[in-house]
Write a structure and sequence with these properties.
This protein is an alpha/beta fold and about 325 residues long. It has ten helices and twelve strands. The longest helix is centred in the middle third of the chain and has 19 residues. The chain binds alpha-L-arabinofuranose.
Length: about 325
């Protein structure tokens, strides 16, 4: 316990002063990992942070964790502090894909390997990062669309009017979930996307987007495709306030699979939730240790994910843990 307090105090002092690494490694840590988290925008994100903290402790890895409150500039500043401290490995979940080249070049010049967690970046430069540990977002979009096609078949629908509430613009999950979904429905002439709006992965934006859609399209909406549970949970009361029954009058498709959404799926107000697991911590620690030891790592590591929907016995879905 005393050791953990010393470690926290040491990290806090280093973060405040931004000074170089002491000769002594903090505690018994096998390595020091600097991790810049995007923020706390969703139950998914909070679960992801918790998992990374727990796994760092389990692996005896010293974790310097910084929360960027959804701002890219905060993430860039955090990565610069990790470089100044000379951590062994840097990991971060990029809030958007563009604009990382300069800071990653600095990490490369300092000889510190960088792991992308959850989301990807867009860069022309080779070798700025070592690997990506995160979901196959394109496949998630495909699975959401495949569910919808099966549901439309079962209901015998001839036209399917879809509204989309997307995640943060220019983020990997937003781009890839949308692409997977649109590519999959493209060949089905029944499918008609009325509009897509940026909901920024936030519950409050889910509410706003749904209110706007209901005012504009009313009961002609057949489907809401929402890029995360948070926005879905925000949208549902708006549908009910408009006198419609989510899950019956409007097909609701969500992504993440957090406990709250699964409870609502069990109530029948969500029809389908595509899983996106936040439990990336174990893979992150394993990969960081390999990099520290100079071992090769896989360039892309996708966790296995599944679909929870009204096609299965939802009473059998166990506790989600996030
Ligand atoms: O990048 C993963 C996405 O970010 C999750 O779907 C969402 O809930 C989170 O905020």
């Amino acid at each position: 316990m005393r050791k953990r307090i010393v470690l926290c105090v040491l990290f806090a002092a280093l973060l405040l002063t931004g000074c170089g690494k002491s000769k002594e490694e903090p505690g018994d840590a096998k390595l020091v990992l600097g991790f810049s988290q995007i923020g706390s925008e969703s139950a998914w994100r909070i679960g992801n942070t918790k998992d990374i903290e727990e796994q760092a402790e389990a692996y005896g890895i010293g974790l310097m964790l910084e929360n960027a409150n959804q701002k890219q500039e905060n993430q860039i500043a955090a990565i610069r502090r990790f470089i100044a401290y000379q951590v062994d490995v840097i990991a971060f979940s990029p809030v958007v894909e563009e604009g990382w080249d300069n800071v990653l070049k600095e990490a490369k010049d300092a000889g510190i390997p960088v792991i992308l967690v959850d989301r990807d970046i867009n860069t022309e430069q080779e070798g700025l990062t070592t690997c990506l540990i995160g979901a196959d977002f394109y496949k998630e979009g495909v699975m959401a669309a495949e569910y919808l096609i099966r549901k439309a078949d079962r209901l015998g629908l001839e036209q399917v009017n879809i509204v989309e509430i997307t995640g943060t613009e220019n983020s990997t999950p937003m781009r890839q979930r949308q692409a997977g979904f649109m590519d999959t429905i493209a060949a089905d002439s029944r499918m008609c996307v009325l509009e897509s709006i940026d909901g920024d992965f936030l519950k409050s934006r889910g509410e706003e987007c749904m209110r706007y859609y209901l005012e504009k399209y009313g009961d002609t909406i057949d489907v809401v495709f929402s890029h995360n549970d948070e926005m879905t949970i925000g949208a549902l009361p708006e549908i009910e306030n408009a006198g419609l029954a989510p899950g019956k009058d409007i097909i609701i498709i969500s992504i993440d699979g957090g406990q709250e959404a699964i409870n609502v799926l069990k109530e029948g107000k969500i029809n389908c939730v595509v899983e996106c697991t936040p439990k990336l911590g174990r893979e992150l620690m394993e990969t960081a240790l390999k990099l520290k030891n100079g071992e090769q790592v896989e360039t892309v590591i996708h966790p296995k994910e599944q679909v929870f929907s009204d096609e299965i016995d939802v009473s059998q879905i166990g506790p989600r843990g996030y």
